[in-house]
Design goal:
The complex is a heterodimer. Chain A is an alpha+beta fold. Chain A contains one helix and one strand; from the N terminus they run βα. The longest helix of chain A has 8 residues. In chain B, a hairpin with a 2-residue loop joins β7 and β8. Chain B is elongated and about 65 Å long. The termini of chain B are far apart. The model of chain B has no long low-confidence stretch (mean pLDDT about 95). Chains A and B meet through β1 and α1 of A and β6, β7 and β14 of B. β1 of chain A pairs parallel with β6 of chain B, so a sheet runs across the interface.
Amino acid sequence: RTHRMPKEIRVEPHKFAAELIHRL
Amino acid sequence: VAQTVRFPCKYASSGCEITLPHQEKAAHEESCEFRPYSCPCPGASCKWQGSLAAILPHLMHQHKSITTLQGEDIVFLATAIDLPGAVDWVMMQSCFDFHFMLVLEKQEKYSGHQQFFAAVQLIGTRKQADGFAYRLELSGHGRRLIWEATPRSVHEGIAMAIMNNDCLVFDTSVAQLFAENGNLGINVTISKC
């Protein structure tokens, strides 16, 4: 059984905390 | 009298039919399935609350930057892990007809000591979450670091799990062992148990 390479996804850093400051 | 009288759960209007003595109310209401769900995104910035069915539409409309990948076995490549300060990397993994939110969080719980915390939460109830297991694996350069656990439900959220270190925890020096070009690949596998 060939080992199927799992799919990869690039995830950018997210400053959720900054999101609030951005919204104020 | 207060001990004999039974009070309705405060989420009766949302459909909970349970009545209980006063001293049992708080504990029940904390885990009541009719309690509104909060936004599962890390960080306390989003104040949204709503039903379980409304979570996915909320994420799609209000948190468009969160991408979803299909499959039980994926690689979550967190980029720029050397970014200073408290940072989150969030993605969704969909498999078994469910959506799982994967969170990697960098935090400085103790001053001068930055750590990474990684956990998975199911967009579903606690009971549904108990039917799954997740596995996080860091591997590279002849090394392997694995964490396996039951996903939290978005009803509980992962803030408590992170606070109690009840998730994958590693510090920046360990992260550097597995990172390449400032990116960290985490292999995430979801399975039914």
